[in-house]
Structure formats: structure tokens, C-alpha cells
Amino acid sequence: MIAYFSLLASCIFLNDFDDSNIIPAIELKMFVIDKKYRGLNLSKHLLDEIYKTVRQYSLKYVGAKAMVLYSVPAEKVTQIYELSGFSKMPENFSMYKSNFNEGCIPMHKFIE
Questions:
Q1: Is residue 11 classed as helix, strand or coil in its secondary structure?
Q2: Coil, strand, or helix at residue 18?
């Protein structure tokens, strides 16, 4: 196995929270590439392919408006996500909090 990941239903909350300020999203979880294959630009390629698939299903079936993830705080990892079009979550956006993602950086990419 070279890599694995999981997807789940999620959302982005706008800080002036009410029902009309929830953006449906698909969350990328547990995105991991085997150490032997890191540094080969596979991350960007796989992220781009995952986004294309999520986009296709979201537009046709799911209705999600964004793809979201929590990045570990390492700058190198965050940069990999940014190369694939993800941005750090703006101040007026938020996602759920849990002990599992504590210290991680919430990021998003709108589905266009």
C-alpha cells in the first residue's frame, strides 16, 4: 500500500452561527503516504485526484460546497495542502473541535 485516506461528511460554520450559515463539506481524514514514497510529489497528485472525485460526487449527488481537513502544524505539510488549493480557515469560519484535532490547522477548498 502506498497511501490511504478516508472521507466523511462535515461542515464549516460561519461564526455568526445560525442554520443558514452552515456550509456542507466533505472532510479528508487520515491522509497518509508510506514513508518510502514521500518526496516524490505523490501528495499533490493524490490530493488533486481525491478533490476531482469529491467534486464529481458532490456536484452530482452530495451537495457539499467545500472540502475540509485538519493539517498537522508542520509547515511542510501545510504547504503540500496549499499547493493543491487548500487555504487556512479564515477567522470567521470554524469547524468542530475534538481532542483528536487539537493543535492542528483547519483548512478548506471550495468545490467549484
A1: strand
A2: coil
Q: In angstroms, rounded to a whole number, what is the distance separating the alpha carbons of residues 109 and 63?
A: 14
Q: HSE on the CB side for 38, CA within 13 Å? A: 8
DSSP state of 106: E
Nearest partner of 31 among 110, 89, 111, 86, judged by Cα: 86
pTM of the predicted model as reported, rounded to 2 decimal places:
0.87
The alpha helices in 20-70, defined as continuous H runs, are 42-57
Taking each helix axis from N to C terminus, what angle separates 42-57 and 75-83, rounded to the nearest 10 degrees?
50
Is the Cβ–Cβ distance between 104 and 72 less than 8 Å? Answer: yes
Residue 6, beta-bridge partner list: 29
CA dist., res. 8 & res. 83, Å (int): 22
Domains of the chain by start residue, with CATH? 3-110 (3.40.630.30)
Element (H, E) at 82: helix 75-83
pLDDT tens digits for range 25-76: 999 998 999 999 988 889 999 999 999 999 999 999 999 999 999 998 888 8
